[in-house]
Amino acid sequence: LTGGVIALDAKTSLRGQANRDTTFVLYAATNTDTEPDNPTGQPLVVTTRGQSHLGVGPGRYIVTARRGIVRRAKLVEVSSGSVAALSFIFNTGLLRLTATGMPPRDASALKPQFRVLEADPDAPGGLREVARASGERATLTLPAGSYTIEARLGAVQVRQRVAVQSGADLSERINLRATGVTLNVTLPAPLRALNLPISHRIYAAAGTKALIARTNRPRPTLTLPAARYRIETQIGNANVRHNIDVDLTDGTARNVTITPLAGLVRLSMETAPGQLPAGDIVWMINDLAGRTLWQSGEASPTTALAPGRYAVRAETLRGEVTQEFEVLAGQRRRIALQAPR
Q1: Fewest C-beta in 10 Å: which of 6, 147, 212, 261?
Q2: 273-311 in b/e burial notation, b at 16+ Cβ within 10 A?
Q3: Which of 16-25, 61-70, 122-131 shows the lowest per-residue confidence on average (mean pLDDT)?
């Protein structure tokens, strides 16, 4: 036989034991391969054993070894009857992440997302992502060094600093202090048959009162940091709103029922006997201070309004007509205006 042997060995640290989580790939080196980091040939052998002996023919080869995000490469020349020993020292540690402080599983279908960041003055914010994982638990192999671990779940974001040492097996628990909240809107009876748009905005109730989350889903389930919030709900496109303050505690789930007060108004234009139709109409509903709350170009539109007094104005080619009216909670009203002559 004219072949030789490549003896492969991989360790997490100089004094560590052989690592079984290493993937070796053997390439035949081409004439253009002067650096082992970027082999141009096709892989010949792939093995995941921490110690391996590969029988090969005489020639030049590139061997890459990967553990987690760490990759090493070496160029070796094998002659007939020789044994070429290649040892890879990764200088890595194992980081086991566990997310805690989450709402019950039935309150959130989301999974925690982990990002591993390291300092980089050229990256936005001075941090560069080097690894990521998904799930309540994650195991990552990282080069020895200091990192920022970012955990996300819905609107929750927590960062924690860790130091990974060569050959270490480190476990870190990250408390998300997250809570689940489901918003249920109970509409007044006259509004239930309408397909009214519903939107929610969630603000921090203290400090800067920053906007934390928003959604247009009618019955959303949100994952938020434990805190006190103001939930502002908009029903329809006029002035039906409902605000509520809630305290949310970590690791729990809560249902919040939203019951806005509103009435339903239908507008129409009537003509006198023998009078021609009014044609195109532009409807506007204002509050008594003159602020426009809603408008429409439909012939006989319907809208939801909060309880109160209003003025409706209809503009046609023949002129305009106005009328004041009042809406009560749960009321269904028809407002008929006489077309201008």
Answers
A1: 261
A2: eeeeebeebebbbbeeeeeebbbbeeeebbbbbbeeebe
A3: 16-25
Query: What count of Cα atoms within 13 Å lies in the side-chain half-sphere of residue 253?
Result: 13
pLDDT confidence band for 135 (50 / 70 / 90) = very high
- What residue type is assigned to position 336 of the chain? A
Structure-token match 């505690």, residue found: 249
- The 10 Å Cβ neighbour count of residue 155 is 13
Q: Which helix (H) or strand (E) holds 102?
A: none
Q: State what percent of residues in the chain have pLDDT above 70.
A: 94
- Please name the residues in contact with 102: beta carbons below 8 A apart, sequence gap of 6 or more: 108, 112, 136, 153, 176, 178, 251
Contact yes or no for 341/275 (Cβ under 8 A):
yes
Contact 285, 315 (CB under 8 A): no
Which of 152, 103, 112, 100 shows the shortest CA–CA distance to 254? 103
Q: Alpha-carbon distance 52 to 175, whole Å?
A: 41
Rounded Cα gap, residues 28 and 49, in angstroms: 20
Q: Which two structure tokens, joined as six digits, stand for 75?
A: 């160029």
3-class secondary-structure state, position 15: coil
In whole angstroms, give the CA distance from residue 332 to residue 153: 43
CA dihedral (74, 75, 80, 83) in degrees, to 10, reads: -20
